[in-house]
Amino acid sequence: xxxxxxxxxxxxxxxxxxxxxxQLLAELxxxxxxAAMLAGKVGLPRQKVNYHLKALERHGLVELAGERxxxxxxxxxxxxTAASYVISPLALAAVQPDPDRxxxxxxxRWLLALGARLVxxxxxxxxxxxxxxxxxxxxxxxxxxxxxxxxxxxxFIQELTAGVGALIRKYDSPDAEGGRDHRIVVAVHPTVKxxxxxxxxxxxxxxxxxxPKTSEAPSVAPSAVPELTD
Length: 230
Prior knowledge:
Layout: E1 5-7, H1 10-17, H2 19-29, H3 35-42, H4 46-58, E2 62-70, E3 73-80, E4 85-87, H5 108-132, E5 139-140, E6 143-144, H6 150-171, E7 183-185, E8 188-189, H7 198-206, E9 219-220, E10 223-225
Parallel strand pairs: 1-4
Antiparallel strand pairs: 2-3, 5-10, 6-9, 7-10, 8-9
Helix pairs in contact: 2-4, 3-4
């Protein structure tokens, strides 16, 4: 079982978003089970569970883990193909975000478009590397910092931009024969508290919610995405 896999096919994405099928995926990520074993957990007849399992299997989200005899019946034990799933923007190819359409380093929506492209590109690279049976060389850095003031945050962004820009200029070799292009993504955003979502999360992150103003703790996550390794 993979730790995480990216869903690129629209039909597979739709199958995974069905509430019952999503529940079945969660159960099967914990370990192999048969339709009869799952029926009681999801509150459906075994035949209905079988129907959903076949749909998930057809899209490669679950697979056969083994079979066992129970009386006169042979039960198929199924398991999830991954512990977790991410839906790629390719599943909505016609309306996927395009960060090149509008570039604004201070725009949260541009940051979201960059993140979507990162998911799409890394997902495509993982798919290609898996088919080619090659390792994929990537790097990511994730951390948190609490700024004492907005001025400190602005100074941090300025130094970060200058430092990363200097490294790019130092190592960039556009004319190098046999060289490989890499994409560098650096993101800074307020930390979202666990269990916070929607408007509450937006207000909490911006410090504009009613009551005491929350401190910001942005995370810095540079990520390099290369081509397939040899």
